[in-house]
Inverse folding.
């Protein structure tokens, strides 16, 4: 079966006056129908640019320099703007961290939702309106008829994010890119949104790429997990496998630094240093300078991708051994 | 006189924010129209004390009033009702010298270092300005004092002449902490101080907070929405919901045996790494607006255990076990 999304060797670089920023550098992964991929990384790791590349939304000075992005077998890299208009919003939709990125503050909800429907479907305005009403009730918005005539500022943060999700779902897309959609929300509202997305993905078979910095959020949501560092995926595999047996020292370090994995009141196992600037990457493995397992070969060349046991892919010369991974 | 129980102590504090009527409303008022002023009850009779060297975690969602309480305890805002006691004496009855000492003893660290650090001052000025002004150090010794504090928070003193934008997020958080430490406080109010940081940097800053506490005997009011972090750091935890404390208890007890249904729901909704893929069972409903909070217990429209009485009478915050306070009618029968 063809994967819904197949990304191979994707490199997106930004050509700035200060030099070439390799925001995404040789990233490969695939997402099957109805699956959720958690794309995890810190700021500057390239997770958002990966999402934008899939949406065809990378602006100058950035561009995709190599690689391929296939949506259900169809190549998206190099597509014309006209071609993109049949994909974006219909086959791939995006949910942003701030729903006000999606919503126009001076238009009523019905105006912007009906516009989205009519952009891709040849239907009457009335049936478009009905579709919008159904979409709102599907994401758990009470009294959708009244809410359709409201303006975005009349909604709470959680409700705005629901509207953004409803818009993303209008055309039953094959793929949704969700870029930190719950980061700005409160704990109880975050749980509501995740539950909703989880239910909808299961019902509609939509594949989801969930971009986040929060391991805890994706651990309960995703089927597979890809950890990014300095523009590369350094570890990818089934979520349970990656979280219980992390092989890359960075993944292991992140998990060990969480308060829940440390005795209460004791110092946390911190990763020293900070993420490197993409303009001045260290030679070899970019995590090398912060890594406790670094040896001479790490400073020579970027570790190649290796296929480990249990479907895990890894970029490390000296991975954490299976035993004692979570000691 | 015996030593007071708490170093800083908010007693029965309320804070209301109201919108000043604009010109149109004033004219309408003169013409006899009935205009209602919008009043937000940010805090509603809240009491919370911080003992010498203690870490108190303050948890709540947006609109719960946690930042308002932090700012009142730090002396940035005055409460509408109630008093703040410092070392057992009402802060408003202190003379000027005592008041200044009390204000300096409680310092605040903010969430976003970029909006709380002056971008046009270099780090030496940001850290050195207050202690020099308040006569904690002589002007000639400020440079050495700043270097010493920078070292304490893990910043290289040779960066003293740099500007905030030249630092990374984690380093900026350290600058904010250094500025607070420079006036030798005894309590630090940290308002979401690590929320904006990357995961690997969060652990570093949490460790810094713990080290400073051990080295300097500091007390913290640690305001956060991140229950995992609060559990790790705090000795005692208070949970705020729409301007009222619904539960407060020693951290271990609160996390192991939560009493209030809201605390139970918060803990259940907290994402955890170890659980693996599972179906989320969220708490229904929105956080109500503090302009028009629900009657009785503010939590009753979302509560699975709500009884008719919950909509009528607000439950009192009372002791349910030694050192444990909870405001829920479910405790009345027991």
């Amino acid at each position: 079966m063809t994967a819904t999304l197949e990304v191979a060797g994707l490199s997106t670089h930004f050509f700035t006056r200060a030099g070439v920023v390799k925001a995404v550098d040789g990233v490969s992964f695939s997402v099957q129908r109805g699956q959720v991929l958690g794309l995890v990384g810190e700021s500057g790791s390239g997770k958002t640019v990966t999402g934008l590349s899939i949406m065809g939304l990378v602006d100058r000075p950035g561009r995709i320099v190599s690689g391929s992005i296939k949506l259900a077998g169809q190549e998206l890299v190099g597509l014309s703007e006209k071609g993109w208009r049949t994909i974006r919003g219909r086959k791939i939709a995006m949910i942003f961290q701030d729903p006000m990125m999606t919503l126009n503050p001076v238009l009523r909800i019905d105006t912007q939702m009906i516009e989205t429907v009519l952009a891709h479907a040849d239907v009457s305005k009335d049936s478009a309106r009905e579709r919008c009403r159904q979409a709102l009730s599907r994401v758990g918005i009470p009294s959708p008829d009244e809410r359709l005539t409201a303006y975005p500022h009349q909604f709470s943060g959680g409700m705005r994010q629901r509207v953004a999700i409803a818009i993303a779902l209008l055309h039953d897309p094959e793929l949704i890119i969700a870029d930190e959609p719950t980061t700005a929300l409160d704990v109880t509202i975050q749980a509501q949104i995740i539950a909703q997305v989880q239910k909808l993905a299961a019902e509609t078979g939509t594949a989801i790429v969930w971009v986040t910095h929060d391991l805890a959020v994706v651990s309960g949501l995703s089927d597979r997990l890809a950890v990014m560092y300095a523009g590369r995926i350094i570890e990818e595999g089934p979520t349970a496998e990656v979280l219980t047996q992390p092989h890359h020292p960075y993944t292991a370090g992140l998990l060990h630094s969480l308060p829940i994995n440390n005795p209460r009141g004791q110092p946390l196992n911190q990763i020293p240093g900070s993420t490197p600037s993409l303009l001045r990457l260290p030679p070899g493995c970019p995590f090398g300078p912060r890594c406790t397992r670094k040896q001479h070969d790490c400073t020579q060349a970027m570790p190649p991708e290796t296929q480990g046991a249990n479907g895990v892919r890894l970029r490390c010369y000296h991975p954490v051994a299976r035993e004692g991974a979570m000691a | 006189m015996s030593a007071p129980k708490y170093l800083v102590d908010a007693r029965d504090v309320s804070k209301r924010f109201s919108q000043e009527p604009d010109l149109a409303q004033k004219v309408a008022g003169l013409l006899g129209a009935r205009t209602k002023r919008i009043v937000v009850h940010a805090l509603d009779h809240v009491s919370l004390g911080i003992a010498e060297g203690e870490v108190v975690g303050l948890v709540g969602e947006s609109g719960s009033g946690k930042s308002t309480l932090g700012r009142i305890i730090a002396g940035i805002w005055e409460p509408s009702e109630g008093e703040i006691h410092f070392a057992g004496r009402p802060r408003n009855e202190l003379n000027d010298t005592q008041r200044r000492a009390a204000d300096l003893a409680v310092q605040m660290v903010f969430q976003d270092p970029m909006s709380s650090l002056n971008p046009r001052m270099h780090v030496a000025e940001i850290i050195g300005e207050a202690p020099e002004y308040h006569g904690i150090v002589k002007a000639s010794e400020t440079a050495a004092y700043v270097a010493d504090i920078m070292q304490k928070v893990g910043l290289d003193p040779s960066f003293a002449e740099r500007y905030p934008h030249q630092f990374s997020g984690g380093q900026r958080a350290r600058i904010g902490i250094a500025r607070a430490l420079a006036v030798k406080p005894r309590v630090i109010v940290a308002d979401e101080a690590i929320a904006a940081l990357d995961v690997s940097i969060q652990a570093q800053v949490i460790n810094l907070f713990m080290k400073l506490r051990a080295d300097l005997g500091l007390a913290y009011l640690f305001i956060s929405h991140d229950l995992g972090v609060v559990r790790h750091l705090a000795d005692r935890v208070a949970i705020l919901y729409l301007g009222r404390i619904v539960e407060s208890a020693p951290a271990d007890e609160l996390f192991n045996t939560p009493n209030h249904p809201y605390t139970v729901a918060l803990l259940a909704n907290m994402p955890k790494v170890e659980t693996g893929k599972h179906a989320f069972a969220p708490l229904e409903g929105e956080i109500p607006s503090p302009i028009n909070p629900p009657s009785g217990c503010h939590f009753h429209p979302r509560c699975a255990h709500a009884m008719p009485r919950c909509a009528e009478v607000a439950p009192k915050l009372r002791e349910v076990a030694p050192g444990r306070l909870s405001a829920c009618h479910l405790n009345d029968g027991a």
